[in-house]
Amino acid sequence: MAMVRLQKFLSEAGACSRRKGEAHILAGNVAVNGNVVVTLGTKVDPDTDVVHLNGVPVGKPDHLVYVMLNKPEGIVASCEHRGEPVVTDLVDLPQRLFPVGRLDKDSTGLLLMTNDGRIHHRLSHPSFDHEKEYDVTVQWPLADQALAAMEKGMPLSGVMTRPARVRRISGNRFRIVLMEGKNRQIRRMVKKAGNRVVRLHRIRVADLKLGNLGKGSWRHLRPGELRQLLKLLQLTG
Predict the structure, then answer these.
(1) Distance of CA 11 to the CA centre of its chain
(2) pLDDT tens, residue by residue, 116-146
(3) pTM
(4) From CA 153, how far away is CA 233, in angstroms rounded?
(5) Known catalytic residue: 144?
(6) Which strand (E) or helix (H) includes residue 218?
(7) CA–CA separation, 55 vs 112, rounded Å?
(8) Active-site position among 45, 47, 92, 104
(9) What are the residues facing 167 on neighbouring strands?
(10) Rounded Cα–Cα distance for residues 194 and 57 (Å)
(11) Contact at 8 Å (CB) between 179 and 131?
(12) What kind and span of H or E run contains 223?
């Protein structure tokens, strides 16, 4: 098999995301064939090299799992976060899963979890233009001009957000569709418009819809959903 970058191997093995893998490598948490590796450009042979993360062997999963979770508020969308509950605590499966994309602690809604590392990069990177839809409630009624500014794009920390689709539901509630995922982006956009988010609920990622899945509940993706997702991401499964 062709050599692959170590952080990609960790991601595709379902151990962590690529970004987290890079952090683990730089922190000296990864060993290849018994030797600690701290260089991000290091490549490994998935068929012959033995990789450990924090002393635990890492290999490609024998069984790929795809789970949809309705994340409650107060839960961190991470595999581990010292002193706080994390989303992996909510899914009772033997496989080591990791969350795909951001959904901050106070937000709720659709979170995809999997041990298929290919999914994370394809759904999280803005270059692939996959939509994420949110139902947002704010503290005070928003003016049409504020919604128009979010739709057109607005500067956050000196960087313009990409154009979005925005639809008003009521005076202080709207739906917004993003094709990027800057840190706490919607909350920052609303704050810049002089308001405050009181509820942020993700209802769709790409073609996956949350539907009536209960808060804190999870389910495996249905076969049709998985086929459509892999097709959309140009993956063979």
Answers:
(1) 13
(2) 877 877 787 666 678 999 999 999 999 999 9
(3) 0.79
(4) 26
(5) no
(6) strand 218-220
(7) 27
(8) 104
(9) 175
(10) 49
(11) yes
(12) helix 223-232
